[in-house]
Amino acid sequence: MIGENILNFHGSDDSYYEEWFEDLEDGWITAINFRDFILEEMQQYNIDSYINSGGDLDVINWRTLTPQVLCARIHEIISRRIDLF
């Protein structure tokens, strides 16, 4: 998810995110370039346990990348986080 323009977040019902996370067979949900206050609210509602965010994911200049390169970059970042390399 690219969240540069998200200004409002409703995290009171985490079942949507939990179901989305459980439906994934292989992969991750990532939040790219979200505003700090949105990420903080996600943490307050424990949504961040379903979505990877922050760190290198906040500095991806996704507009300059092709979809394939963007996905490869995200895969690289998440793989380092969970120590797949």
Task: Write a structural description.
The mean pLDDT is 84. Helix 2 links the parallel strand 1 (30-31) and strand 2 (52-53). The radius of gyration is 13 Å and the shape is globular. It has one domain (15-81). It has three helices and two strands; from the N terminus they run H-E-H-E-H. It has a two-stranded parallel ribbon with strand order 1-2. It is mainly alpha-helical. It starts with 14 loop residues before the first helix and ends with a helix. The protein has helices at residues 15-23, 36-44, 67-81; strands at residues 30-31, 52-53.
Q: Any idea what the radius of gyration is?
A: 13 Å
**Helix and strand composition category:** mainly alpha
The stretches of 5 or more residues where confidence is low (pLDDT under 50) are none
Cα separation of the termini: 24 Å
The main pleated sheet reads as: 2 strands, parallel
User: What's the oligomerization state?
Assistant: single chain
Please tell me the total number of domains: 1
Count up the helices: 3
Question: What is the strand tally?
Answer: 2
Q: What is the succession of H and E elements?
A: HEHEH
Q: What overall form do the CA principal axes indicate? A: globular
